[in-house]
Amino acid sequence: MNSHTNVAPIATLRDAQERPDVVSLIDVRRHFGKTAALDGVSLSVRKGEILGIIGRSGAGKSTLIRCLNGLERPDSGQVLIEGRDITGLSESQLQPLRRKIGMIFQHFNLLSAKTVEENVALPLKIEGLPKAARLQRAAELLDLVGLSEKARAYPSSLSGGQKQRVGIARALAARPALLLSDEATSALDPETTHAILTLLKDINKKLDLTILLITHEMEVVRNIADRVAVIDGGRIVEEGAVWSVFADPRSETTKSLLNTIRPQLPDHIGQSLTQNPVGEAVLSVDLAGPDANAPLFADLSAALPHAFRLIHGGIDHIQEQPVARFFIGVPDPSRLDSVLQFLKGRSARVEVLGYDARPV
Amino acid sequence: MTPVLFDLLLRSIWETLLMTGASGLISLIAGLPLGLALVATDRGGIAENLWISRLLGAIVNGFRSVPFIILLVALIPVTRLIVGTALGTWAAIVPLAIAATPYYARIAEVSLREVDRGLIEAVRAMGGNRWTIIREVLVPEALPGIVAGFTVTLVTLIGASAMAGAIGAGGLGDLAIRYGYQRFETGVMIAVVIVLIVIVCGIQWLGDRLVARIDHRA
Fold first, then answer.
1. Contact in structure between A228 and A245 (CB atoms under 8 Å)
2. pLDDT surpassing 80 at residue A132
3. Of A71, A94, A111, the CB nearest to B141
4. Average pLDDT, chain B
5. pLDDT, tens digit, for every residue of A102-121?
6. Which H or E element spans position B105?
7. Which of B126, B133, B146 should we substitute to test contact with A (largest number of A Cβ atoms within 10 Å)?
């Protein structure tokens, strides 16, 4: 078996048109006792992309991310890192490989007995770099994450956001080909989360760094991921470009994870809906991509005056793509068919959710 | 107190400090690796090996369950082998060190176990090996507890060294029994107690200051 650990070939491919897979998982399974944490996961991460893996707690995401650097060993299947299967490697063979995979953690995992710069320099110490070179690189990285003035401070004096910046600097110290993020923003407040995600996105662009992040928050995926994979019960239940999954979620898991972030029919209306076609028909209208840029409702109004009213909804922009989701009411059921026809003609996905018999 | 008794007091102080210091040092050098081994070989440890873990645990428990005065006598052949004699201050250091090592190992073990597993995982994820984990994570992160535990061990050793008079090792405890108690020299008894209080407080103060200096946890 070829066991060289050189990562240089990938660097030369950086400028090539095609984006090779940095990571591929092939039918990876991992059981703990009788429960399957990973039940046949196949997945790939392309060079330079940010892949978000989202799932509820216990869905298997932690196990999945730990399979990528050998902290967790699958029972079966293949884990290819830059084309090389790591599942058969011994602990000492994995060590040089792990140096090229950075990892950041929910609870930062900074060493309390070391200063910020010593923490950042630790991966380089493990690599065997001389002290002066280590500290110089640490200074560069602290500059990158905007924490130069804290180099000599101890982690206990930092805020959560600052600790995660140190975590990111440390993960980047050894110039990794891949960054793994294990719920890196889950312990942070929304504002700090946003700042950390912006930093990750910047690093992704600046260094063309491949990032795989796991999270239970759709907001995180929405903000920075290029592609998303939804994991549930140890299986990938849905996968695709973030904007298209947000626009048209297929699995129930995805839909429910999206609940907090997509417009939802207000509860008081949803509760009074019946399937009996009496009263106002309530519709959901979904549109995404170029179709969502057209003045849909203005046109609908012009074609069918006074046929509908807006109940709730909005247009989000994900990966620079408009993703629209509206709820409308059609008070006169006799006009429902023409409204449906018009909307479908504009390639909207329309669903009649029910009828509200209460007077409007 | 007569000048003779005062000289005796000074000599006893030296003997106590020598016994405590030497056996303390040995217990640190041997007990810390033993504590590390207990943590590393236990379930989920960095060098999991349950048989070794159980064996080490049994040995440690065995030594710790024997009262020191019995260990002192039982170890006489070992002492004679190492020091050449079974009597005197140097001879007492052997049983003291042998008793203190498992004691300190258990104290160090508690501190080492408290090190956040996330930190070990982080260093493994960086590509660190076991030795890196010990050197960069376990020992430095547990150091405040390791130092505080060493302070406790030293104070315990001062107490235990009082029994070493039984094999002619001298020391403050021996002085207090032979002069203060058996010869009714109340002055000697009071002096010994005061000196012991000063030594114990001094060690504790030094230990606490050192811990405060090295502890950077929140």
1. yes
2. yes
3. A111
4. 93
5. 999 999 999 999 999 999 99
6. helix B89-113
7. B126
Q: Domain residue spans in chain B?
A: 3-214
> What residues in B contact A96, CB-CB < 8 Å?
127
Please provide the average confidence, as pLDDT, over all residues in chain A.
Answer: 90
State the pLDDT confidence band at A146, using cuts at 50, 70 and 90: very high
3-class DSSP assignment, residue B188: helix
Is 70 exceeded by the pLDDT of residue A359? no
C-alpha–C-alpha distance, residues A81 and B169, integer Å: 65
**Is pLDDT above 60 for A9?**
no
> Smallest Cα–Cα separation from B42: which of B103, B109, B116?
B109
The domain made up of B3-214 has a fold known as MetI-like fold (1.10.3720)
CB B47 within 8 A of CB B130: yes
Interchain proximity A126–B140, CB inside 8 Å: no
Average pLDDT over residues A303-329: 92
Residues of A in contact with B125 (CB under 8 A): 69, 71, 98, 101, 103, 180
Residue of A nearest to B140 (CA): A113
Q: Alpha carbon A156 to chain centroid distance? A: 29
And the tokens for A109?
A: 């995992």
**What's the ipTM?**
0.88
Is the separation of the CB atoms in A99 and A126 below 8 Å? yes
Q: Is the pLDDT assigned to residue A17 strictly greater than 80?
A: no
Q: In the predicted model, is pLDDT for residue B112 greater than 90?
A: yes
What does the H/E/C string look like for chain A? CCCCCCCHHHHHHCCCCCCCEEEEEEEEEEEECCEEEEEEEEEEEECCCEEEEECCCCCCHHHHHHHCCCCCCCCEEEEEECCEECCCCCHHHHHHHHCCEEEEECCCCCCCCCCHHHHHHHHHHHHCCCHHHHHHHHHHHHHHCCCHHHCCCCHHHCCHHHHHHHHHHHHHCCCCCEEEEECCCCCCCHHHHHHHHHHHHHHHHHHCCEEEEEECCHHHHHHHCCEEEEEECCEEEEEEEHHHHHHCCCCHHHHHHHCCCCCCCCHHHHHCEECCCCCEEEEEEEEEHHHHHCCHHHHHHHHCCCCCEEEEEEEEEECCEEEEEEEEEECCHHHHHHHHHHHHHCCCEEEEEEEECCCC
- CA A321 to CA B11: how far, in whole Å? 87
CA distance A35 to B41: 27
Note whether B103 and B156 are within 8 A (CB). Answer: yes
When pLDDT is averaged across residues A295-318 and rounded to a whole number, the result is 92
pLDDT, tens digit, 9 for 90 and up, residues A257-281: 998 889 999 999 999 899 988 889 9
Nearest-by-CA chain B residue for A182: B122
All structural domains of chain A = 8-100+176-258 (3.40.50.300), 267-356 (3.30.70.260)
Chain CA centroid to CA A168, Å: 17
